[in-house]
Amino acid sequence: MEGTAAGAGGLDAVPALEIDPILDDRGTRIIVCCGSGGVGKTTTAAALGVRAAERGRRVVVLTIDPARRLAQSMGIDALDNTPRKVDGIKGSDGGELHAMMLDMKRTFDEIVEAHADPARARAILENPFYQSLSAGFAGTQEYMAMEKLGQLRARDEWDLIIVDTPPSRSALDFLDAPKRLGSFLDGKFIKLLMAPAKVGGRAGMKFLNVGMSMMSGTLGKLLGGQFLGDVQTFVAAMDTMFGGFRTRADATYRLLQAPGTAFLVVAAPERDALREAAYFVERLAAEGMPLAGLVLNRVHGSGAAGLSAERARAAAENLEEGRMGDRGPGKTGLRGVPATSSEPSHHATAADSSARPSAARPSAAPEAAPTADVTEEHGTDPDTDQDLARLTAGLLRLHAERMRVLAREQRTRDRFTALHPEVAVTEVAALPGDVHDLAGLRAIGERLSSSRGGS
Q1: pLDDT grade, residue 355 (50/70/90)?
Q2: Which residues contact 435 (CB under 8 A, 6 or more apart)?
């Protein structure tokens, strides 16, 4: 990062994350961008997709971000559950980019339609409990993201899939989702409701009546008979599909552990975001999943880091209190005004002119008069000097605040690198605004791939 030196335990103590070798490696088939919400995962995933496609890969980016600005930055009116080709990619060797946005409910519907006969599928899709489950059950979005990843990988149409994980309160939700849904499907309540369907016939109805009567005293009052009926119908229809959910979840989980997968943890240089990143790094290690490194996003820099916050603040105070020595008229540095002159501006101009041989020639006279006028107008105005001092003091205070931000970000980053010196890191400079087009995504990609992220 420009303007800050990596101290002990800082960037010098950890390996640099090299992005281009990951993108160029044909053995890399899946890149998962993960981290807490609001750290730039979606933009990072899109920028990686653009860069990989323009380096010859056939890429699909699966994003979870519903914001239209990402689709617009790729020149697409809207993203949906179907991959759409992105035009304007300057790819070589057949490089292409497709993008899609996960539709959680539509993905769930596709699973039902693919693994159930038409009559059973219709019964499931129209079931009120299923509609509630597919639209809002905790962990459904994360689980469906993994389902869609498995579908894309099975098609083998793209040689690189980049996944933007869902924005969760906890970055761990993405890994926990399959187990959470499996626990729900394996729960005692679901098993109890599945039992009548497994027995079948009159015996099943008899068992169902006994089971429902056992639950009616408590669950019936708590949830309502209609709700229990909807759940029972849903379970009976979904019985043959439950095992498929668990099997596919396990297969996708193993896919994430495979050598062809690379996890990139994205974080901002803030305490909470890096704490989440640390949790995720530890969880990935515990699960045996391949971590490529940390992308530290939106890092601030300064082109004048040699001026410390303390010195800038002291200089601002001196200017505001009028303690800057030798300040007088003509200190604005205008042409034709001696630095030590305290005489009126027309005398200063004349003295300066007499010192130059060319001033004696008549042809030089027309040039002298405007210089005198400009100096009289700008060089000796006390209000101008005061305005300049106030402006300079304000800029110095802004610089002091920027240097404090840089120091805080560096301390936060160094705490992470001290705890996880094995994790490769790259830094990406904060941009003045949002990314609105492919050129902006290319710029992010260049920063990601340059040494230490091009801060």
Answers
A1: very low
A2: 43, 46, 47, 69, 73, 441, 443, 444
